[in-house]
Every structure is written in C-alpha cells, then in structure tokens.
Amino acid sequence: MKLQKRLHAQQTRRSYRVRNTVRASGRLRLTVFRSNQHIYAQIVDDEAGKTLVSASTAEKGGLGEGAHGNTVAAATEVGKRLADRARLAGISEVAFDRGSYRYHGRVAALADAARDGGLEF
C-alpha cells in the first residue's frame, strides 16, 4: 500500500476509534476540525443528528485585523466563544471528540479554553 493511502487509513481508524468511544458516553459531542488555515468546533447531538452550537476562526468578525486562524491564540478564542454560546444554549456537559488529531497544540488550547469557559468534559 502506498504511503499516502496507509496514512489515510490510519487516520480514519483513529478517528472512528475516538468517535465511537465518545458516542458511548451518551453526552453531547464537542467535535473539532483543524485545517491548515482555520479551526472549527461544534457541539453535536448525535441522537437528533443536529448541530446545536458552533464556532470557528472562519466566521465574520471571528478574528481581529491581521490575525491568523492557525495559531494557538486563535484556537483559544474559538474555545471561549464556543463555551459562551453553549452556556447561552443551556449546555454544560459534553464529551470531547478530537477526531484523528493529537491532544496537542491548537486542539488542546481549544479544549482548555472551553473548560475554562464552563464546559465539563
């Protein structure tokens, strides 16, 4: 198997393993998507199949002038914004779905900021 296919297969297995563990918890799921330029987070109700709250660096007015969406500071801001929106929607407990990403850098910064904002993982 070529390297790229093997790496993609490993990433897919890793994300399924994490997601199935999180879904078994019975809580709402806080899922993260990290691209090279932005970071996105949303709280999903798997039973209803709906997104309840979301935040990202790609939103209008999401970042200040000249700021980049691929930094730890931007991820921290997204985590704070998501926690505020979740609190307004009456959500306090979630399960953190990191997908296929390591709990490191931008993903960890987003999770820590969401915790500081009042969400319980």
Rg, alpha carbons: 15 Å
Question: What sequence of helices (H) and strands (E) makes up the elements?
Answer: HEEEHEH
Number of domains: 1
Please name the CATH architecture.
2-Layer Sandwich
Secondary structure category = alpha+beta
Count all strands and give the number: 4
Mean pLDDT: 92
Major beta sheet summary:
4 strands, mixed
Strand-residue proportion: 15-25%
The first-level CATH class is given as Alpha Beta
Q: With helices defined by DSSP (H or I, 4 residues minimum), what is the helix count?
A: 3
Indicate the percent of residues in helices.
Answer: 40-55%
Low-pLDDT windows of residues:
none
* Shape assignment: globular
Query: What is the rounded distance between the termini?
Result: 38 Å
CATH topology name, in short, is Nucleotidyltransferase, domain 5
Strand order, sheet with most strands: 3-2-1-4
Task: Walk me through the structure.
- The protein has 121 residues and is α+β, with helices and mostly antiparallel strands.
- It has one domain: Nucleotidyltransferase, domain 5, CATH 3.30.420.100.
- It is 40% helix and 21% strand.
- The protein contains 3 helices and 4 strands.
- It has a 4-stranded mixed sheet.
- Helix 2 packs parallel to helix 3.
- The longest helix has 21 residues.
- The radius of gyration is 15 Å and the shape is globular.
- The N and C termini lie far apart (38 Å).
- The mean pLDDT is 92.
